[in-house]
Specification:
Structural class: mainly beta
CATH class of the largest domain: Mainly Beta
Shape: globular
Domain Pherophorin: 15-162, 182-337
CATH architecture of the largest domain: Sandwich
Helix content: under 10%
Strand order of the largest sheet: 5-4-8-2-1-11
Largest sheet: 6 strands, mixed
Organism: Chlamydomonas incerta
Biased composition (Gly residues): 768-777
Keywords: Membrane, Transmembrane, Transmembrane helix
Region (Disordered): 747-777
CATH topology of the largest domain: Immunoglobulin-like
Length: 777
């Protein structure tokens, strides 16, 4: 714009405008910027406030600009940036133009009074930008912008053009005004198009050069549902953007015809840049695709030094060959659905009764994320901790913002019956399903958690193997999902409508173990719940003894809760008839086993928590009873009970707390080995823990028991025959057969009591593996 020069502006001929910023009330204040990711591209939005609160010097105002309108605003935007969207006062400003003189905000048509209350202005550009404008010539400071406000007076429609610079007033905890930032609809459900992968051709040699073709198909979705951002169901497809590697792309064909393409890099926020294949000028609507869709072929040239395993698709998208992350952009830029172009994905079905979405999306485009968080090891167990996060809040920036409804970890079928499961909150105990898989056919097993975090939250999940120092390769199934590649584990995270696939191995663990170790130490034991306890021996109701039997593949534990003798001097934990909580501080791994398999008695009034152990609620006048459970593995007391809970806890003991209305009592209980202690399973199926599809070894009876039982039957049969024989011979010759067996004889030792489903143990002669022989009688 021409500034005031005597030869041009003589006689006020309308060729000039007043440019003095001191003779204008208008200004632009910078408040903040944000970055968002849509359609595989980063967009930066700069937020300003346009106002008319500057002091206007009337002594310098020859053109009467202090009361002029503001009709058009020019901002000196960096010419290397591409403006995508402009919002003015919460609405998209259609009359914008980016040219050699910067960005024109046209036809704003404001009066001085209109801008007394600051008007929000937002300018969105493509890419990750630090500043909207180059440093202005009036004040060469990075971050400021030069601007011109063109306005009219009653005498001259072009009288005013004050040139000024922005003022910076950064706002902390800035929240963008509604509708001010650019958004495009990224959900594939709100798209009439999607891309599928058909396969890779065999290498072909032309003129001594090898070429490979990647074959895709652009198809109509057949169903479309607007997502509330923009209705894209009738959008026109302008261009396709695909994440690719640096393989040399030589040609792209759509429906057998060559089409133009380009490759470029776009910098995502907080990540490395990736290479983008853009197939432009498509200008398609859904009806153009036909029933079979349009084939899209990308041909690459293999150089002599190319890695034979290198793929066209960027490995950050998906590890499967041909699994490309793609983005479909509409002509107006407001539709940018994304997806993964994979060969017919076949994933194991979700268990009946759980959510079963059928649309796969890239993990980077969904609000759901799963991480391998930590591995902790004990002498007899290895626990893998997985952290599932959801980012579905009001500021969700992902293309698919949804709540987790379930997720599955795919297991080696040979260990599926051995795993135990832990939940961060005890209320979720039992909310998992284990499908067994098949070792012979290699069908993976699956551990499915039937819940997950919602909104903006995280949840921890724990999976334990009953052996120390195990790795993910011992836990997970190989080749469980398409794209798993050489990763040890595969998982599938589901929302109601979409799912993502996640792959990881030991190198991906979030909390790294110390050098030279494969595991972390885990969290320290929790502080005892009772802050000022009385001695457990003073309680009229207490766990006074414990027994255990450790066998080769399992172990049984029994804690006896016994009231004091009537003549004893003791303190009742609660008045008669009132409740008492008996807490045994079991290890987290033991709690996981018990809550997963349900091999515990009693089942009622028993709370299991990974932090506090087992809490058993009884009445203060309860009769003698016991808490019994079976766990897998040759475990001892130090394996199932937390050690080091308090400084005075003896080694190889359990912390027991009894809490009631009259206070808390704490003590430490050791356990005696008892080879006669054997678990007898209940007849009825358990409603807690492992799905009925899993066969978990619950009855562990040493072979010697069965053998001795057969011998007892043989002895009884022999005696019956002897009695019959004695009736037919003389009394002298049969006398020896009629003598009663001596105490401790074969018949007495082989007596086996009958067991009802509620029995906890049976007594047998001799010691089982790891247990002590029964005492003499």
């Amino acid at each position: 714009m021409p500034t005031e020069q005597p030869t041009l502006c003589a006689n006020n001929n309308g060729n000039c405008c007043q440019a003095d910023s001191y003779a204008s009330p208008y200004g632009l204040t910078y408040v903040n910027s944000t970055q968002q990711l849509f359609g595989g591209r980063t967009y930066t939005t700069f937020f300003y406030q346009f106002h008319s609160n500057h002091f206007c010097n009337t002594d310098l105002d020859d053109a009467k600009c202090c009361t002029a309108s503001a009709d058009n605003i020019w901002v000196d935007v960096d010419p290397t940036l591409k403006v995508k969207y402009v919002s003015f006062n919460g609405q998209r400003l259609a009359n914008t133009e980016q040219g050699e003189f910067g960005l024109k905000l046209g036809s704003v048509n404001l009066r001085v009074d209109d801008a007394k209350t600051s008007i929000p202005v937002a300018v969105t550009v493509e890419g990750a930008a630090d500043a909207l404008c180059p440093p202005p010539g009036l004040a060469p400071i990075p971050g400021l912008c030069e601007l011109v406000v063109q306005g009219a007076t009653s005498a001259n429609p072009n009288a005013c053009c004050p040139t000024t610079i922005t003022v910076s007033n950064l706002q902390s905890n800035f929240v963008p005004p509604a509708g001010s930032a650019f958004q495009c609809a990224a959900s594939l459900e709100n798209s009439p198009f999607k891309l599928e992968f058909d396969g890779v051709s065999a290498p072909q040699t032309v003129a001594g050069q090898q070429y490979v073709s990647y074959n895709f198909r652009l198809i109509a979705t057949g169903s479309c549902r607007a997502d509330g951002v923009h209705d894209c169901c009738h959008a026109q497809l302008s261009y396709l953007d695909m994440k690719v590697t640096d393989l040399g792309i030589t040609a792209v064909q759509l429906d057998g015809k060559s089409v133009g393409f380009s490759t470029s890099s776009w910098n995502e926020p907080n990540t490395a840049s990736y290479r983008s294949l853009v197939v432009d000028n498509l200008n398609l609507v859904a009806d153009d695709l036909g029933a079979a869709g349009l084939p899209l072929t990308v041909t690459v040239r293999l150089s002599a030094d190319s890695n034979p395993g290198k793929d066209l698709c960027d490995s950050s998208s998906d590890l499967a060959q041909g699994g490309c992350a793609y983005y479909l952009h509409s002509e107006d830029g407001f539709c940018c659905p994304s997806g993964l172009a994979l060969q017919s994905i076949v994933v194991p079905p979700a268990p009946p009764g759980t959510c079963a979405p059928d649309t796969n999306v890239p993990a980077s485009d969904a609000s759901m994320s799963l991480a391998y968080y930590e591995k902790t090891c004990g002498s007899s167990s290895t626990t893998f901790n997985f952290l599932l996060a959801n980012h579905n809040d009001a500021a969700c920036k992902y293309g698919y913002c949804a709540d987790v409804c379930s997720w599955s970890l795919y297991l080696d079928p040979s260990v599926a019956s051995q795993v135990s499961v832990g939940h961060e909150l005890a209320v979720n105990n039992g909310k998992q399903i284990i499908t067994p898989g098949n070792v012979a056919t290699g069908t993976p097993a699956a551990l499915t958690f039937t819940y997950g975090p919602t909104g903006a939250s995280t949840t921890n999940f724990y999976v334990t193997l009953p052996a120390g120092a195990k790795s993910l390769t011992s836990l997970c199934a190989r080749n469980a999902l398409p794209g798993q590649g050489n990763k040890a584990c595969a998982a599938l995270v589901r929302s109601k409508n979409v799912y993502v696939m996640v792959f990881f191995d030991e190198t991906d663990v979030f909390i790294k173990p110390a050098d030279g170790s494969s595991c972390t130490a885990g969290s320290p034991p929790p502080a005892p719940a009772c802050s000022n306890p009385k001695p457990l021996a003073d309680s009229c109701l207490a766990v006074r003894s414990a027994r255990f039997n450790t066998m080769s593949t399992s172990a049984v534990f029994d804690f006896a809760l016994v009231p004091a003798d009537a003549s004893a001097t003791c303190v009742p934990p609660s008045p008669p008839g009132r409740n008492v909580d008996v807490q045994i501080q079991l290890s987290a791994a033991a709690v996981d086993q018990i809550s997963t398999r349900g091999q515990v008695r009693p089942k009622t009034n028993l709370a299991l928590d990974r932090t506090s152990g087992a809490t058993w609620t009884v009445t203060s006048t309860t009769a003698a009873t016991s808490l019994s459970f079976e766990v897998q593995g040759p475990l001892g007391l130090s394996d199932v009970c937390r050690q080091g809970v308090s400084p005075d806890q003896p080694a190889n003991s359990c912390v027991v707390e009894v809490t009631g209305d009259n206070g808390c009592f704490r003590g430490y209980v050791a356990a005696a080995a008892d080879g006669r202690l054997v678990w007898i399973s209940e007849a009825e199926p358990s409603s807690r823990g492992v799905n009925a599809a899993v066969v978990v070894p619950a009855v562990v009876v040493p072979a010697v028991v069965l053998l001795l039982a057969l011998l007892a039957l043989a002895a009884w049969y022999r005696r019956r025959r002897s009695q019959k024989y004695a009736a037919s011979v003389s009394s002298g010759s049969a006398g020896d057969l009629n003598r009663p067996l001596a105490a401790g004889s074969l018949r007495d030792d082989l007596s086996v009591p009958s067991a009802s489903p509620s029995d906890v143990q049976i007594r047998v002669p001799g010691a089982s593996q790891g247990g002590a022989a029964p005492g003499g009688r």
